[in-house]
Amino acid sequence: MNFPIQRHRRLRSSAAIRRMVREHTVSTDDLIYPIFVTFGTNVKEEIPSMPGVYHFSLDRLEEEIKEVQALGLPSVLLFGVPEHKDGVGTSAFEENGIVQQATRKIKEWAPELLVIADTCLCQFTDHGHCGVVQECGHGEAVIMNDASLEYLVKTAVAQAKAGADIIAPSNMMDGFVQAIRKGLDEAGFEHTPIMSYAVKYASAFYGPFRDAAHSTPQFGDRKTYQMDPANVREALREAESDIAEGADILMVKPGLAYIDVLSQLKQKYNLPMATYNVSAEYAMVKAAAEKGWIDEQAVVMETMVSFKRAGADMILTYHAKDVARWLKG
Ligand code: PBG
């Protein structure tokens, strides 16, 4: 009788032994929960393509924050949906902008909860681009890099002044980390970390988010600033420049389709890594679960541990509250 020399099944034979040899685990500590805040009163409105995710007006936000806290989640990421939009995104950086107001409230209700502010202009500009735009004739327009930085810095500083614990710029202009770092330092926020959306692809997986944030570009697309899905060496260059410019945490976005990029960054650089399990990834799971085609909890937990295995230290996900609940048992 020829016995197999290696029997991998020995270490899989019971739940206890599988638990003992398990290489990666998901913890509530890993999760960041995105929240959409909006103007008006008594608004708690479900986003049609993102079941279970809502727009909250400030007077309805406290209940959500209390729930997030009770579940033991360490942090939230804030997106603002403003009342007024203009060419430069003024409501992103005014003192009473929706994100600044929400941040002050949250720090009052839940001082230990980390507030991460998404720093971008696209929800706040009337054209829906992440920077400012210049017409260049023939109906063509370009997204101006260096002119945009000024407004992004103003936004980051306004967010920090309101009490944001971490600044998360998602605009993909060149030099944004350096500009924001300098702006924060000059304003006395040298201890506020920057979580850079270092590697952000021009992705169709943001579709439901753009409905939720009302941030679809009114002309053109984001391909001149967000990355081409076909590229990975370019992702390493993006990461390198953000590290050199002073980023504290690097993010890869979207999550699932770019998990190889996350893995490469993790192996190459020693900064903490975040990944964004984006809106369409969430919507697809929700839609299939609603039809009874998948086991939602099993699919979501497998996705989360896959992000950990690929190298994520942090996962931004709309499933965060459910995952925290499931982990509690
Ligand atoms: C803003 C921003 C976007 C997302 C996060 N920040 C959209 C975009 O770039 O169009 C997407 C998040 C998601 O899809 O869940 N720049």
Structural account:
- This protein has a single domain (26-328), classed as Aldolase class I (TIM Barrel, Alpha-Beta Barrel).
- Helices cover 40% and strands 20% of the residues.
- It is built from twelve helices and twelve strands.
- It is globular.
- The chain is an alpha/beta fold and 329 residues long.
- Strands 1, 2, 3, 4, 5, 8, 9, 10, 11 and 12 form a ten-stranded mixed beta sheet that branches. Strands 6-7 form a two-stranded antiparallel sheet.
- Bound molecules: ligand PBG.
- Ligand PBG is lined by residues 118, 120, 122, 130, 170, 206, 209-210, 215, 278-279.
Annotate the secondary structure layout:
Elements: H1 15-21, E1 31-38, E2 44-47, E3 50-57, H2 58-70, E4 75-81, H3 90-93, H4 98-109, E5 114-119, E6 132-135, E7 141-144, H5 145-162, E8 166-169, H6 176-186, E9 195-200, H7 207-213, H8 233-244, E10 249-253, H9 259-268, E11 273-277, H10 279-290, H11 296-310, E12 314-317, H12 320-328
Parallel strand pairs: 1-3, 1-4, 1-12, 4-5, 5-8, 9-10, 10-11, 11-12
Antiparallel strand pairs: 2-3, 6-7
Helix pairs in contact: 2-4, 4-5, 5-6
Bound molecules: ligand PBG.
Organism: Marinicrinis lubricantis
Function: Catalyzes an early step in the biosynthesis of tetrapyrroles. Binds two molecules of 5-aminolevulinate per subunit, each at a distinct site, and catalyzes their condensation to form porphobilinogen.
Pathway: Porphyrin-containing compound metabolism; protoporphyrin-IX biosynthesis; coproporphyrinogen-III from 5-aminolevulinate: step 1/4
